[in-house]
Amino acid sequence: MREAPVAKPITESEAAEIARQLFGIEAAAHALAGEYDDNFRLREAGGSEFVLKIMHPDREREFVEMQCAVLQHLATTAGELPLPRVVPSLRGQLCVQTRVGDGSRRIVWLLTYLRGKTLAEFQPHTPELLEELGHFLGKLSSGLAGFSHPAAQRELKWDASRAAWIRDYLQYVEPLPRRMLAQRFLGLFETDVAPKLAGLRKSVVYGDANDYNVLVACGPGEGARIAGVIDFGDTHYGITVSELATAAAYAILGKKDALAAATAVLAGYCAEFSLTEDEIALIYPLVGARLAVSVVNSAHRKSLKPDDAYVTVSEAPAWEALERWARIFPRFANYAFRAACGLAPIAKAAAVESYLAKSDAASILEADLRTEPCVVLDLSVGSTFLGADFSSSETAKLSAAVAEELKRSGARVAVGRYDEARLLYNAPQFGASKNPTDERRTIHLGIDLFAEPGTPLRAPLAGVVHILANNAIPLDYGPLVILKHVTDTGEEFFTLYGHLTEKTLHELSIGQPVTRGQVFAHVGAVHENGGWPPHVHFQIILDLLDRGADFPGVARASEREIWKALSPDPNLLLQIPAERFPKPSPTVQQLRTRRKDLLGGSLSVSYAKPLNIVRGWKQFLYDETGRAYLDVYNNVPLVGHSHPRVAEAAQKQLALLNTNTRYLHENVLRYAERLTALLPDPLKVCHFVNSGSEANELAIRMARAKTGSDDIIVLEHAYHGHTNTLIDVSPYKFDGPGGGGRKPWVHVAPIADDYRGPYRRGEKNLGEKYAAHVGEIVETLRKQGRRATYLAETLPSVAGQIAFPPNYLAEAYRHVRAAGGVCIADEVQVGFGRLGTHFWGFETQGVVPDIVVFGKPIGNAFPLAAVVTTPEIARVFANGMEFFSTFGGNPVSCAVGLAVLDVVRDEKLQENAKKVGDYWLAGLAELQKRYELIGDIRGSGLFLGLDLVRNRETREPATAQATHIVNRLRERGILAGTDGPHHNVIKLRPPLIFTETDADVFNTTLDAILAEDAAQP
Ligand SMILES: Cc1ncc(COP(=O)(O)O)c(C=O)c1O
Fold first, then answer.
1. Is 725 left (phi over 0), alpha (psi -120 to 50) or beta?
2. Dist. CA 692 → ligand 1 center (Å)
3. Ligand 1 atom closest to Cα of 694?
4. Ligand 1 neighbourhood includes 798 CB (under 6 angstroms)
5. Please, which residues have CB within 8 angstroms of residue 666's CB and are 6 or more apart in sequence?
6. pLDDT tens string 967-998
7. Residue 703 — left, alpha, or beta (φ > 0 → left; ψ -120 to 50 → alpha)?
8. pLDDT tier for residue 104 given thresholds of 50, 70 and 90
């Protein structure tokens, strides 16, 4: 047919009239973009929506009838799928021929309208969404099975089996490298697909699940769902597997990990509709061919109509995807696809593995590890063997640690485990990018046998020398040998030996036979082996993927199962007894199950996909696979996770003495001196305990001793701890789920929140106005002869990262003190320089509390807390009843407290908080200009809050969006949390060593997430 639009397009009013006359529908018509036909969206007054399709005059009726028939068929066979339904005309016809204004005869038909955004425009394409697309299409394929129509037998350039037509059009592709790329996939189609076409399953396929035909729906903060597919104009009889391959070709557009995207679609598809092994084997070439058809088609049409934007709409992403696809090794893709369909990734794996298990392999080392004692090391991410400090994986330190372990155990050989996630691989070749949260290669695919340099190595099985190489870049394999073997049933496999002597390479030649048990190589020394502690890395390989000496020994965790299939456990040959191995680490699922039974249900776990965090270092946390997460949430590790000075202080003191404070010991005094030196007069008397809750409890006892009244004034939404009294003084708890309500002795004042509270930014005397409410409570109590304790955080965190307006605390304290009350500052969240401008929160308000409470960051995650008060209150409190906390102020916690203060001072962390906080705020302010969702940004230094709103006028909290954003940040490798009474405030409180680069990583990631559909107001 002619590929040209009709000369005179149908007008919207004409379309509305046609709809009324033929279908009895009274609706306004809006023209939709289209290539050939005139399509209109109709909306009835009642809200029902339709698509009126007025076909190009050259369209054959049969073609439209086929589309009607296929949609009607699917309405019965796949009724649960949201698909357009054909609406019959007033006369009961599915398509009607009619004469239109320009005199042409047109076929007209009507479909129900599907609401949704196109997949192309929707963000993000999560693996879950792509998998759901697969499910959808799998059900579609099931629904189409058995459907036939004469018009489906058509010649269509998008028919996957006809991709070879592009050969004559490659000439239109410029520049040459692109032409060659398209040619390469054409070649693959011709060699791998074309010869199999005759034997392939065929059926009617929809054939057009491109990203502009797939619709997605999602409410604020919700997970996305597939809302349908549209445009059945490419329906044809073709190879069944093309349905999936076409969808996969478009699903990979714009994806950094194209294979993961394609695999996600396939996994969903296969769960609904089985593909055969032969069909799966063609997915890679078919995806490439589809993209090649797309780009060649664009190039050709561009040559005909250079200015037609429609032609080039998906050209750039298609080229990019094709380039990415070309970088994936076809057999590797096939293994991933097989796994996604529940098949063994590598068909021959079972045969080879059973051969290996029963083969009488020779011992590689002189010491036969089947019987000889050995020590199996734990080099995993969470292993205490290496600790958190990355410098411990520097090779000299690693060598020393391994040697020490050998000495300690008395074994001759130390073993490094297979399938172990390690953080040893920090060189660029392991995938470390500029973004520290990007996935790196961490999964070890061989077994390491640590032994003296020069130790002879024997071939476990007979084979021939297949590869000799020296991968000499630092931390690579160094000298390397790969032997080729064949099983008794003729299956080929390989064994790899890395980190050998250079001499080994000179003594062997390619093709040389090696007999079982023959010494063929030697363990290299550090200077020649890539710089590692002397060992042999021994790995089995079932398919070299044409990579030769570049075959990886370490894989990405997201591809773990495929690489494990490619490189099965070398212990099949070594046969080190199972009891020598440390217990395997539990999986996330196992931990969740055990936790459910062992820990109370009231203890929740963060994120929709909970994390198993096994290591913390500086501002990063690491899960069991070695994935790094930038921690912007934890204010407890003030000076960074696992700070060596803090750890050393604790370890040294714990190894010497830890006991209670009833003996004289200098640590507690030194710490009290250092802490009080940082505090204004008259805050000079310390009491040490173990947690913020304990400290607040104690502070309240002291205050009550002074006031003689139980009454306590707290702020709305406040949280002060988990004990009985503290729940009673925490509106966040007693007014929250499971709470028992306010006790008569508790008085709640409005929180001085100048964004959401009754008095807002811009008004005058805000501090005074909010403080007046405290004054009123104080006055009511005074009239009853009662005196109040005023307990407030200096910058409330749980209430939503609130910074009080100027003068608030000064005025509130003035009211309280005027009536003989006591003021407690809960400094648990914000103290120790976090605010940048001041060391303590109360200083930002220009006040000196009567009692100040410290917790959380004070010990950098070591259980330490303190209450510091005036000599006067301390004297009143010492009324004869003794104060004693068994662990409070012990030598270890005071050593830790001292180390924390040292680090804050020496590393100038308050200054850093100010500098980085200002920088971060400036970046966030830029985001606020672009995203309506960010209603307010507040806080200072590294204590910031983003108040998310659906509407900046009404300030309606965007709770669902905030939850979505935090979960998406977690998926992107950043840990944040929500807070505030509406859980709509993203709280940012990273360790004070946070850098400007970290702030950039956060802001860039947040920027991308804020653009996503579920994050819209
Ligand atoms: C402001 C405030 N005070 C006190 C506490 C209680 O501290 P802990 O959990 O150490 O008992 C918390 C804990 O989150 C807090 O946020």
1. alpha
2. 5
3. 11
4. yes
5. none
6. 999 999 999 999 999 999 999 999 999 999 99
7. alpha
8. confident
942 near 988, Cβ under 8 Å? yes
**What ranges in 692-789 are assigned the alpha helix state H?**
692-707, 724-728, 731-734, 766-783
At 838 the three-state DSSP class reads coil
Shortest-distance atom of ligand 1 to CA 793? 1
Q: Is residue 26 left, alpha or beta, with left meaning phi > 0 and alpha meaning psi from -120 to 50?
A: beta
| Cβ neighbourhood burial of 483 (10 Å; 0-12, 13-18, 19+) | buried
CA 854 / ligand 1 centre spacing (Å): 9
Q: Are strands 934-940 and 554-556 parallel, antiparallel or unpaired?
A: unpaired
Nearest CA to ligand 1 atom 8: 692
Give the 3-state secondary structure percentages of the chain, helix then strand then coil, rounded to 5: 40, 20, 45
Instruction: Output the CA–CA distances (angstroms, integers) from residue 718 to 81, 401, 800, in the order listed.
Output: 48, 49, 10
DSSP at 525: P
Give the pLDDT confidence of 820-852 residue by residue, as tens digits: 999 999 999 999 999 999 999 999 999 999 999
Task: Kindly report the length of the chain.
Answer: 1017
Determine the distance separating the centroid of ligand 1 and the alpha carbon of 698, expressed in angstroms: 13
Please report which residue ranges of 32-126 form alpha helices under DSSP H.
61-77
828 CB under 6 A from ligand 1? yes
Q: Establish whether residue 696 lines the binding site of ligand 1, counting it when its CB lies within 6 angstroms of any ligand atom.
A: yes
* Span from the CA of 991 to the centroid of ligand 1 (angstroms): 17
Is residue 767 a contact partner of residue 806, using CB atoms and an 8 Å limit? yes
Regarding pTM above 0.85, the answer is: yes
- In sign, the C-alpha dihedral spanning 21, 22, 25, 27 is negative
pLDDT tens profile 564-598: 999 999 999 999 999 999 888 899 999 999 999 89
Q: Decide whether any atom of ligand 1 lies within 6 Å of the 719 Cβ.
A: yes
- For the record, the structure tokens of 409 come out as 């155990």
